């Protein structure tokens, strides 16, 4: 991902959040889980910065949306709680270019499905089919 890609995703995610009046934190990480962008919108809780970053890292290192982990745990597989991932709640979405993972977006601050919606809006700014 280029700097311009990160800026475009951040702007699109923030615009989506503001459009819905959602006070969130948006984190973007590279393919190694290293933080490239973190913005806590006015009114977002202090803990959302850690959670958004954790969701992004979990999504990129696990190569799947964090919702997968949340659903697995909800279905009774509580052993996943001991996995070395930090945020297994919906709101972390990996970024794929073809079969290659290039990063992830994590969002925290509203309902989990809304966090994921914001993350996907950011990724959509790249104009790629993210699978």
TrEMBL record:
Protein name listed in UniProt: GlcG protein
Domain of life of the source: Bacteria
Signal peptide: none
Gene: glcG
InterPro entries attached to this UniProt entry: GlcG_carb_metab_protein (IPR052517), PduO/GlcC-like (IPR005624), PduO/GlcC-like_sf (IPR038084)
SUPFAM superfamilies registered for this protein in UniProt: GlcG-like (SSF143744)
